[in-house]
Automatic annotation (TrEMBL):
Gene3D superfamilies: alpha/beta hydrolase. GO terms for biological process: formaldehyde catabolic process. Belongs to the esterase D family. It comes from Pseudomonas brassicacearum. Keywords: Hydrolase, Serine esterase. This is S-formylglutathione hydrolase. The active site is at residues 150, 226, 259.
Length: 281
């Protein structure tokens, strides 16, 4: 599969690049960003952190705002940031034009309902197609970590819990921990997956953790001044589920922080170290 380079900027001795390619899984062209640390030019393969962004975001938000490249360069860690949904003229969005569903809001699941099922298969794209592409075109090893924010934090947790052995590390910032029980998740799940709630369980981290065959340690940071904390994010659901399942979870409630990239930038270095340690970077 060919890649079209869209841009290239040097950063901390490495390179931030954006690429376009055709996704067979999603049935449309997709754009992703990659940060290649300076070690990528020294031979050998490097571990990869896949970053999943939140509602309304593209591949650009994390790379521009998180301040992750300095530490990634120090650790020798490749970072890959995909888009948050399929895009294009043939891809349906929210019928009411609302920002929390459809374009920019793929929820990292595989839709089963029309008209969404044809394109909205972000889980298979993130877990299978994109890593295969990255590992074929860059000095990327099969040592993979996954992280994300908000909807992307939900995606990171679900990708890791549903795919034992696929990732060696996982973390999240302010994830949607229990989407079956919050307005964002209920809207997305009812449209993408249908009204049968038993199908929703397959995409809810607070449910999946009880059934996980691999107890990969989870690192979750959450700001206590996050406007969405009580209504949408519900970290207590994940905490309780992890406790009952005996699943290792480090949940840190960070005083004074909100839902923004100022919060992510404040703790991203610690998350990158968490992944680098697990990935042997």
């Amino acid at each position: 599969m060919s890649l079209e380079n869209l841009s290239c900027q040097k950063s901390f001795g490495g390179w931030h690049k954006r690429y376009k390619h055709h996704s067979h899984v999603l049935g449309c062209d997709m754009v992703f960003a990659v940060y290649l640390p300076p070690q990528a030019e020294q031979g050998g393969k490097l571990p990869v952190l896949y970053w999943l962004s939140g509602l309304t975001c593209t591949d650009e938000n994390f790379m521009h705002k998180a301040g992750a490249m300095r530490m990634a360069a120090e650790l020798g860690l490749i970072i890959v940031a995909p888009d948050t949904s399929p895009r294009g003229a043939d891809v349906p969005g929210d019928p009411d034009g609302v920002w929390d569903f459809g374009l920019g809001a793929g929820f990292y699941l595989n839709a089963t309902q029309e008209p969404w099922a044809k394109h909205y298969r972000m889980h298979d794209y993130v877990v299978q197609e994109l890593p295969a592409l990255v590992e074929a075109h860059f000095p990327a090893s099969d040592k993979r970590g996954v992280s994300g924010h908000s909807m992307g934090g939900h995606g990171a947790l679900v990708c890791a819990l549903r795919n034992p052995g696929r990732y060696q590390s996982v973390s999240a910032f302010a994830p949607i921990n229990n989407p079956m029980d919050c307005p964002w998740g209920q809207k997305a799940f009812s449209r993408y997956l249908g009204e049968e709630r038993s199908k929703w369980r397959e995409w809810d981290a607070s449910v999946l953790i009880a059934e996980a065959s691999e107890k990969l340690p989870l690192l979750v940071d959450q700001g206590d001044r996050d406007d969405f904390l009580a209504t949408q994010l519900k970290p207590e659901a994940l905490q309780q589920a992890a406790k009952l399942a005996g699943h290792p979870l480090t949940l840190r409630l960070q005083p004074g922080y909100d839902h923004s990239y100022f919060f992510i930038a404040s703790f991203i270095d610690e998350h990158l170290r968490h992944h680098a340690h697990a990935l042997g970077a």
